[in-house]
Amino acid sequence: MKLNTLTIKQAGEMLAKKEITSVDLTKACLKQIKETDGKIKACLTVCEKEALNEAKKADERRASGEKGDLLGIPYLAKDNILTSGVRTTAASKILKNYIAPYDATIIKKLRQAGAVLLGKTNLDEFAHGASTENSAYGATHNPWDLTRVPGGSSGGSAAAVASDMCLFALGTDTGGSIRCPASFCGITGLKPTYGRSSRFGLIAMTSSTDVPGPLTKTVADAAVVLSAIAGVDKNDATTVNKPHPNPLLGKERGGLEGLTIGLPKEYFVGGTDKGVADVINQAIEELKKLGVKFKQVNLPHTKYGVPVYYIITPSEVSSNLARFDGIKYGLSIQDTDRAKADLMDIYTKSRGKGFGPEAKRRIMLGTYALSAGYFDAYYLQAQKVRTKIKQEMDKVLETVDCLLTPTAPHIAFKIGEQSSDPLKMYLEDIFVTGASLAGLPAITIPCGFDQGLPVGLQLIGKRFAEAMLFKIGHNYEQATEWHLKRAKV
Amino acid sequence: MQLSKEEIQHIAKLARLELTEAELKKYGGQLSAVLNYIDQLKEVDVKGIEPTAQVTGLENVLREDAVRDWDEKEIEQALKDAPEREERFIKVKRIIE
Q1: Which domains, from first to last, does chain B contain?
Q2: Which of A308, A368, A370 to mutate to test the interface with B (most CBs of B within 10 A)?
Q3: What is the CATH number of the domain that holds A22?
Q4: Which class for B57: exposed (0-12), middle (13-18), buried (19 or more C-beta within 10 A)?
Q5: Is the ipTM of this complex over 0.90?
Q6: pLDDT tens-digit profile of A445-473?
Q7: In angstroms, what separates the C-alpha of A195 from chain B's closest C-alpha?
């Protein structure tokens, strides 16, 4: 048996029974990375030595009687999450050699839980994108078809989980960046409620929607990871004090009778490929068999989600990326003529050379939207429309237990197919921006294939009601077993 | 709407980005296209609607204004990341003539 193919639950049971060690698991993952990452390019950094050290420590902790769902479980983290001592690049040239002085809160929590960090995964530079093609270090390839994108921006994390390089991975989701790649790669991806898991130590993109979450092989595993990374953090004032999501909830079987799922009309009109729509409809039928009732609901402002997102995101990006200035850390370039090399010169040269095209595009767009004379027309109007989107989703969610939609309107596209047209790429986010703008939890679960490539269904829940998504998702998974399908790499 | 080259140059200056001629031209077209797409937001009636400030209903999250000491190793690593330093200071170009 290949240990790297295990789920967290399976590996945890074997570790508890002392049938395997964390060092065995970690070595199996490192071997898989070595054998397959040349083709897939999911990892930006692999920290073999540190990982084996941590695995050894985890084994010692277990030997001394300690227990834990994640004790000794190897994982990968998206490279916009700070890891003390292991470089963090955000897939940007501007942070090529950056080593963070501290761990992100979620990394710290996983370290305390005894999880083993294998390395850092590729992403669209600063998480700007839906394909992982915007990485300064080259695109990641979809394990199901190497000529296609893995989705983005957490494309490295999704491709790594889908090809069994790790037992789970961390990603960040700002407007679909966990859900899109998880769906394209045929795995589970959870965007927790905004404020559920700390943003401290993430390289900030859009602070009002950024949220870190797990990419896993099963729904139950997502519940385990969420329960480890969730909680109030004094370093992130937006984290909310709510009862911890119970990891056992993911184990529940049955109990779907009497639940009602809403199907937002606006997510089921045109634009979605027929193959994807067919698979989603089959999933709805499957859930009906499990006792779920469906009800059509209306979210008329859905179509404004993407335009709102592409004002708010660049605006916050332009502000958040102002810290990369060639002074405190990262790439620093100045005119060779010392007389010309003033402060402004260092700023403009370091940023001009250090940022890639999409980061610059978003900085420019955001700077424009926030500039004098345009603020009311763009940013303020977008935040008002955002209020309408949020109110509308909240109201509909009062009448149903959750919403079901496709995660993406089509399967993974070819590398290079859409990268020349930024607007077309932005439209990739059509089904995922709503939950981000409203701060609602959303999960994508594999639900079948179109033209041999994975399709994901999205469940959007009430604020802080991840447990409902786990319950429905876990039951669906047990009934269908799409999550057991693996790419041959 | 079509942004002029001067407008693009002005935005780049505000954003502290040195752009090449080719970039100025490319972003001019692309930003105009995105802004035209975003213009559809104007059709939404938002009379009496408050702009979103945050989504979870938190209010006034306060903490004590107390100094928290940094770990020595963290300080050293943070300083190490700076391109120019002198002892425990990061060097910056002169900003006052």
Answers
A1: 5-43 (1.10.20)
A2: A368
A3: 3.90.1300.10
A4: exposed
A5: yes
A6: 999 999 999 999 999 999 999 999 999 99
A7: 7
